[in-house]
Design a protein that fits this description.
Elements: H1 2-28, H2 30-37, H3 41-62, H4 65-75, H5 80-104, H6 106-113, H7 119-144, H8 148-179, H9 195-216, H10 225-259, H11 263-279, H12 281-300, H13 307-331, H14 333-336, H15 351-367, H16 369-373, H17 377-402, H18 404-429, H19 436-454, H20 461-482
Helix pairs in contact: 1-8, 1-12, 1-13, 2-8, 3-7, 3-10, 3-11, 4-5, 4-7, 4-10, 4-12, 5-7, 6-7, 7-9, 8-9, 10-11, 10-17, 12-13, 12-15, 13-15, 13-19, 13-20, 15-18, 17-18, 19-20
Length: about 500
């Protein structure tokens, strides 16, 4: 039974992962587009700064209601539709108010953030954040109903729409402006540049929101104050957790312009850092895909007597495959770096640090099941607050001296501490027998192989590539021998007698 559940988890992780990886990969293609088309790294820094703000605001506007929906929909399955309806009402109402405020007060906010000449940026992104927050609930509903295919299709629709309109505004329109300006000069301004990135985002969000409407109307819109109060009591501590967590991911990009004296240098450095950060997002894709499948999984299997064994296995294999991704990324960085323009390669040194911070983040998420299942979500909030304090302190003290390297190490330290705190407190409240010995062996092996790779620097790139490939084979051989025998892998086992 436990094996079957793990197989289902793996299947859904794969589906979510394919959409996430494909979507993120396609978004990667926008990075070289931006670096080539926009006037310089400072322009890309503007994009990174404002999207960091939107990520923070999105967490605030969802205020933990996704997890709250999962918790109460599983806890009260007989009224799951009503739970769904009340979460939509709550998030929809607050999102609408936020959108109106952003439009009305766009200019003062733009003045505060240093974008006085473009208040429409604030208005557009305010509307985008509000609609994305609203859409997060029907997306959560699809995960609850175990409909990863539709979830993935809508996510890909979002990505393709965004890419299509980015290409249209940043590539097609400039070309048409040269060849036949009469076709587009009634709506296109060749000097607007970065603004078209945000316009494309607005269009994408509207399209996906419309596509989600059929699932929105499956809810039972019967307002239940008592039920909503219970959901909010559970979810609001997760808001603190979410704010602290997203600050750990975006704070560097938010405060960068305020920590370096030269505004243009700050935007340029931020652009370089953000572009290199994109390369590390492979790890984030995996952790995100795992999260999409894992969160409904833990709530659904909570009452199973073998649930703790399943949780332990999930943790072990998450770490193993995270380490495998880490090695693949650092060994073949000479290939991955071409995702971004060579003018941004100065920031490549942050990638190993960022990758490990993503692993710690993923482990922390896996460990978070104990306070979610025991309704002790305030612990998660406190852990994230501690992590945020670490992030803020390291950034403020060291960014003026070490620039974005300080931000990378801040993320590493933050998630490492949060991971340790969650583990030790979790073992007190909900003990799980994680296979620490096996996890430690895999971790030591991965770190050892990475250190060896740092000394591989022959004059022959192909030889370097082959040696590093052999190092990766060593890790995979250990995996196949001890935890993933080839004769148990679908499609492969039929060829092995």
């Amino acid at each position: 039974m436990a094996e079957r559940k793990m197989q289902n988890l793996a299947k859904e992780t794969a589906i979510y992962g394919i959409s996430s990886i494909l979507g993120k990969f396609l978004n990667w293609l926008l990075v070289p587009l931006y670096t080539y088309v926009l006037t310089g790294s400072a322009d890309y820094g503007v994009v990174a700064n404002l999207y960091a703000w939107t990520a923070l605001l999105l967490v605030i506007l969802t205020y933990g209601m996704e997890t709250g929906f999962f918790r109460f929909a599983n806890k009260h399955a007989e009224i799951a539709s009503r739970v769904y309806g009340n979460t939509i009402i709550s998030v929809g109402f607050t999102s609408l108010i936020f959108a109106v405020l952003c439009v009305v007060f766009a200019q003062p906010v733009a003045d505060l953030l240093g974008y006085s000449s473009n208040p429409e940026y604030i208005a557009m992104l305010g509307v985008v954040v509000a609609m994305d927050a609203f859409g997060s609930i029907p997306f959560a509903y699809l995960r609850y109903k175990s409909r990863p295919i539709k979830f993935a299709a809508l996510k890909l629709l979002m990505i393709f729409t965004n890419i299509a309109f980015n290409i249209f505004f940043l590539v097609v329109c400039p070309w048409l402006m040269e060849k036949n300006p009469d076709l587009i000069d009634w709506f296109y301004d060749p000097h607007y540049g970065v603004g078209y990135v945000f316009i494309a985002n607005v269009i994408q969000t509207v399209v996906v929101t419309i596509a989600l409407l059929p699932d929105v109307f499956k809810a039972e819109f019967k307002f239940d104050f008592h039920l909503l109060k219970q959901i909010l009591r559970y979810s609001l501590p997760l808001l603190v957790l979410g704010i602290a967590g997203i600050m750990n991911q975006t704070l560097d990009k938010i405060i960068f312009p305020f920590l370096i004296e030269d505004p243009e240098l700050a935007k340029s450095e931020l652009g370089i850092y953000s572009a290199c950060f994109k390369i590390s997002m492979v790890m984030m894709m995996f952790t995100q895909a795992f999260r999409y499948a894992y969160e409904p999984f833990i709530f659904a299997q909570h009452k199973d007597k073998n649930s703790k064994e399943a949780y332990a296995d999930a943790m072990k294999f998450f770490i193993i495959f995270s380490l495998l991704i880490f090695l693949g990324m650092v060994f073949y960085l000479d290939i991955f770096k071409f995702i971004i323009h060579r003018n941004y390669w100065a920031g490549l040194k942050v990638i190993p640090i960022v990758l490990f911070s993503y692993i710690f983040q993923g482990v922390f998420f896996n460990l978070s099941l104990w306070y979610k299942l025991t309704d002790k979500t305030m612990y998660g909030a406190w852990f994230s607050i501690i992590g945020a304090v670490i992030t803020i302190a390291i950034n403020i003290i060291f960014v003026p001296v070490f620039s974005y390297m300080a931000s990378a190490w801040a993320a590493f330290a933050c998630y490492f501490v949060m991971m340790l705190l969650s583990y030790f407190y979790g073992q007190k409240h909900m003990p799980i027998n994680y296979n620490l010995k096996s996890i430690a062996i895999y971790t030591a092996l991965a770190i050892g192989l990475y250190i060896i790779s740092l000394f591989i620097n022959t004059p022959f790139p192909v030889l370097n590539f082959l040696i590093k490939t052999m190092l990766l084979v060593i890790f995979m051989s250990y995996l196949f021998k001890h935890d993933l025998p080839l004769n148990k892998i679908p499609f492969i086992k039929k060829f092995i007698r």
